[in-house]
From TrEMBL:
Residues 34-155 form the Phospholipid/glycerol acyltransferase domain. It comes from Streptomyces violaceusniger (strain Tu 4113). One of its GO terms (biological process) is phosphatidic acid biosynthetic process. The keyword Transferase applies. Keywords: Acyltransferase, Coiled coil, Transferase. Residues 218-245 form a coiled coil. The keyword Coiled coil applies. One of its GO terms (cellular component) is plasma membrane. This is Phospholipid/glycerol acyltransferase. GO terms for molecular function: 1-acylglycerol-3-phosphate O-acyltransferase activity. It comes from the Bacteria.
Length: 246
């Protein structure tokens, strides 16, 4: 009930304000479990996609979003719960990966829709990065649930880094036909199969999104970008030091 009320208010506001377009809604099953595997361009992806579907979609979120103290923390927790986010404890020997997989399997076993970002993090530059062969493939092979490739379009342009006010524009969503990996059911311990399944899904996302594909992990790309920025700033400081000493 709370989810329905939150979706009505948040989803309705998103639809009215941004008027997102969507293609492929007919590919989402009216009932039964399915995995929605999407590219990840913006924090808002987890809100725009559920807003356009009649069914609830459960995404994984950091547990910190649900445990922050104070009024702001309680409001944040209520908001994330209301839009279908599921907290995952990242502690323990195997961390968030195992927790997310277990959570995803539980969602599928309940006959619901599970949303996941195979890249593992948001794209740092709008390109599509290599999918991680863990969560998506393991949940799909452990449960036999169909995988729907999803492409978010232009969501990163609504509120670029450093911008306080969002830009009023129409983002888009393309949902592809379900992919059946039942032929690999129970083979979620084979890393070559996991890689193959993940790559097949990423290829379909690339076709739907039109993004340039980069065969490295987004986390590695973010580290490279951060290192390059740190080097640039260090060079600027050194240059300023020489100028002041001249």
């Amino acid at each position: 009930m709370f989810y329905g009320a939150m979706k009505l208010s948040v989803g309705g506001a998103l639809k009215l304000t941004f008027r997102p377009w969507v293609e492929g809604l007919e590919n989402v099953p009216a009932e039964g479990p399915a995995i929605l595997a999407s590219n990840h361009l913006s924090f808002s992806d987890s809100f725009f996609l559920p807003a356009m579907l009649d069914r609830k979609v459960t995404f994984i979120a950091k547990q910190e979003y649900f445990t922050t103290p104070g009024v702001k923390g309680r409001l944040t927790a209520a908001f994330f719960k209301g839009v279908g986010q599921l907290p995952v404890d990242r502690s323990g020997s195997r961390g968030a990966g195992e927790a997310a997989i277990k959570a995803g399997i539980d969602v599928i076993k309940r006959g619901e829709l599970f949303g996941i970002y195979p890249e593992g993090t948001r794209s740092p530059d709008g390109r599509l990065y290599r999918g991680k062969p863990g969560g998506l493939a393991r949940v799909a092979l452990a449960t036999g649930a169909p995988v729907l490739p999803v492409a978010m379009i232009d969501t990163e342009k609504i509120q670029p880094p450093g911008k306080v006010m969002p830009k009023l524009m129409r983002p888009g969503i393309r949902i592809g036909k379900p992919l059946d990996f039942s032929r690999y059911h129970g083979m979620d311990g084979d890393r070559f199969i996991l890689r193959s399944v993940t790559d097949e899904v990423m290829y379909e996302i690339m076709k739907l999104s039109g993004q340039e594909y980069v065969d490295v992990y987004a986390t590695a790309a973010k580290r490279q970008i951060a290192d390059a920025e740190a080097t640039r700033k260090a060079a600027e400081r050194e240059k300023d030091k020489h100028k002041s000493g001249a």
